[in-house]
Amino acid sequence: MDERCPVCDLQFGRGEPGYFTGAMYFSYGLAIPLIALLTLIEWLLLPRWTLFQLVLLATGICVPLIPWIWQYSRVLWIHFDRYFDPEESS
Hints:
90 residues, single chain, mainly alpha
């Protein structure tokens, strides 16, 4: 991820170690509904499979999406942080 926005020069992190730790919550919030939706779709397509097998398959399908989910969770975290704690431009 770039350190600054190429358009408006916004610094994405605030220069603090662990700034994006809060993005983990957004990552979880994106991944769990996705896994639940995939599990539901699989259950409709594979009704004889156990719930454990369906969740495992859905999780396996989501593994390649982890970089995408993590990237967007960081974007959501930046928006959340800037909304509740705006910083003056310098």
